[in-house]
Amino acid sequence: MPAFPFLGETLALLSALFWAFAVILFRKSGESAHPLGLNLFKNLLAILLFIPTLLILGKPLLPALPAAFYWRLFLSGLLGMAIGDTLFFMSLNRIGAGLSAIVSYMYSPLLITLSVLFLKESLTWVQILGTMLILSALLLTTRLKPEKNISRKNLVLGILFGLLSTAATTLGVVIIKPILNQTSLLWVTAFRLLTGLIGILIFTLMLPQGKLIISSAFKIKSLKYSVAGTLLGTYIALTVWLGGMKFTKVSVAAPLNQLSNIFIFILAGLILKEPITTRRLTAILIAFTGALMVFIG
């Protein structure tokens, strides 16, 4: 158990706050950077930050772990950092930060369900009711009429990509949860990033416009947003997110992570000037209530 009371819950909450700011920054950089290129850039920069961090802290870059651990981490990184993040950026570019936040409410009920099925964590009736509220909010948002600058095709694709991104991310968490207590948190984060980087790089270079996709992430116009988003969302938020999963139950950390959507909604309106509709606000409040019920349960 951690010496600091509620360490896992605190880290989960902090990850929500940092990730909310990062999403807004990635949304700005996504205006000129391809989703694959942006994902490649953030993983590369984060790894370049993690390596000296590990060395300064005296952590080995290749610790002596069972081969099964490495396979779990490899698959987790591929799902979460390569597939999941790329799909998230594809969703973000199509439907905006506000709608992406609401679509991602599927994260909490899905992760809770997987934790019950595979990690044998308990789920009370209050948590079940909270999960139902979160799902209701998600269904409510799917009936939202497309905004003037979002076509019906992009709305459908954006929601689909968001759901697939959530599924990949949650699977990546469940795979490594059993081994988080036996490894260094910073090293696990860096290894998952490296796996994601390799997967994205191979896939991108196989595309006809692979080099152009990669170069799009290094444009001066988007670079400042990409760097800031990486520092907040990948280097900091990703570490404390895994910390929340390590030091508390997945079913408790998941709804706290969900609070990032509340922050995203507010920031999207203040910074990106995305419209605040009654329906969207209602969905946010319902999902927030559901997340709190999951935590209280």
Specify the overall morphology: globular
Strand content: under 5%
Q: Determine the N-to-C terminus distance.
A: 21 Å
Helix content: over 70%
* Mean pLDDT reading: 84
How many β-strand stretches? 0
**Count of helical segments?**
12
Are there runs of 5+ residues with pLDDT below 50, and where?
none
The H-and-E topology, N to C, reads as HHHHHHHHHHHH
What's the domain count? 1
Please compute the radius of gyration using only Cα atoms: 18 Å
| Major sheet description | none
Quickly give the structural class. Answer: mainly alpha
Topology:
Blueprint: H1 7-29, H2 35-56, H3 67-103, H4 107-118, H5 125-142, H6 152-176, H7 185-205, H8 210-216, H9 220-247, H10 250-258, H11 260-270, H12 278-296
Could you walk me through the main structural features you see in this protein, from its secondary elements to its overall organization?
78% of the residues lie in helices and 0% in strands. It is mainly α. The chain has one domain (7-296). It is globular, with a radius of gyration of 18 Å. It starts with 6 loop residues before the first helix and ends with a helix. The relative contact order is 0.24. The model has no long low-confidence stretch (mean pLDDT 84).
